[in-house]
## 1
Amino acid sequence: MKVVTTLGQFILEKQADFPYAKGELSRLLRDIGIAAKIVNREVNKAGLADILGEAGTTNVQGEGQKKLDVYANEQFISALKHGGECCIVASEENDDYIPIESEVSKDARYIVAMDPLDGSSNIDVNVAVGTIFSIYRRKSAEGKATITDVLQRGTEQVAAGYVIYGSSTMLVYTTGKGVNGFTLDPSIGEFCLSHADMKLPEDGFIYSINEGNYVHFPDGVKKYIKYCQVEDKKTGRPYTSRYIGSMVADVHRNLIKGGIFIYPVTAGAPNGKLRLVYECNPMAFIVEQAGGRASNGYERILDLDVDALHQRSAIFIGSKNMVKKAEEMMASFSPQGTKKTFEGEVVLQ
Ligand code: AHM
Ligand code: MG
């Protein structure tokens, strides 16, 4: 009989990788896993909202129904509050960071930044959504942790992960020693190790971008899209286009199959759309740990300065060679590169 390793067992086993670890990070990851299961239960019931009461209406107990992203936010914050290892939570759902001042958390050393339910507009149509989290150790030695403890570069992350609520629910995380994925077995209510030591293929054949915004993209991105569409037997082009509109789902697919996900700057969003602290940095950490690459088109995501909690960034993330190629196009054509065409480009008259 095959022996199953649960997330809890795996985290404990891996604690030995950190000689000075006292189990705090392990407990923090465990708390996140618990909240993920609760959120998963509600996400699975989303289609029943019409019968059970929609967001904004009142349910049979007379309680107001919550939107799922608000619900997810509350669940993660509550799990982290009660777990006692986290001193600050920063969330896409809250303008400001939330200091945790409960008795159990008075010696807490970790900061968690998260997007509790990314791609939540996809819920109404039964498409995969996700949770993204990023964990830092506080910088300040004593007193209350402050915003300076939160605004650390991506390279300072001690762990990061995501949960994908898809056709099955998975939790994927890294502590800087590779990436492992766990699938929720609903029959026993446990995340079980299903994707050990995940590795992203260096070359991929899928590009993932909201092409509807094409006219607003920088020239380097337009050229890269054209590059993906040109026929070339040697490199397997034209590539396949796939865009779910849930970053977690798009990046997860590419992590398994190989591919690139791009959310560039656009004319309407001059700094990009996605958030550096709790979307780009954690995904970049995971993808790099799986052997991939992540940049804003010019610089490595993890090296970017972090000035504000909700700061945005462009992102090019995925298979190493695909991201490098896209960066090459950015360097040659954007902002005002001197090149007019790339090798092999088909110019329509
Ligand atoms: P959200 O945090 O408001 O859910 O937005 C983030 C999502 C990403 O998951 C996804 O990749 C992107 O927004 C899609 O944006 P667009 O609809 O502009 O393509
Ligand atoms: Mg989001």
## 2
Amino acid sequence: MRLAGKVAIVTGAGSGIGQGIAKQLGCEGAKVVIDYIGSEAGAEETLKAIQECAGQGGGDIVRGDVTNMNDVRSLVDEAWKRFGGADILVNNAGMEIRSDFWETTEEEYDKVMAVNLRGPFFLAQAFVQRLRAAKKPGRIINISSVHEDMAFPGFTTYCCSKGGMRMMMRNLTVELGPLGITINNIAPGAISTPINKALLADKPKLDALLRNIPLGRLGTVEDVAQMVAFLASDEASYVTGATFLVDGGLMRNYHEQ
Ligand code: BGC
């Protein structure tokens, strides 16, 4: 139980990668604040899985929209109220909207940036304010994407948000290091989750994608969750300022043919 005694806040923990992360952290002993916005049933499922591993009291559900400042503050406040504090923040909630650049609307731009970048920014801020006041160390783990670095035509808003998340992490490494707070990004590649439901249902597109993944398969939420658990653990205490690819080699793929 390498996370026993720790408290983790995980956003978007009612489905996909966030659900896998919350379960992993909970099963390794952390108390988990399970944030969700859309899927209450999914959040209940996350909580149930944690309770099966860790017993009652292993987690608590808090509904919170990361684009709403009141929700952002209360998500952090709830961790303090319910569990007496928090040590780990996992900025996982994210979304993408496919649209050609020349057709992208202000609404699409604002929505993607608000969920993927503004939310993590202010959540990290609320978390750091609490830690700083209590003179406590902490861990921030952002679920970014290979597209914090790699082009993704048709998803420029998503790439802008993840590129922003990359620089946010790099800057905060310097600003938060002296407070004993580490920050790292995980960059998943193609993981089988609801975010890419359309792609998973389109066999020719899926096959083309698989040909680009050297390990020849999609990733699972557990592949990502294992990396989060490591970064949250004491073993990673000297690790800060890095992006960790969990992508089966997708980022490095190159074929001369
Ligand atoms: C996106 C997926 C995409 C994958 C690989 C992820 O960040 O959310 O839609 O399939 O990157 O390109």
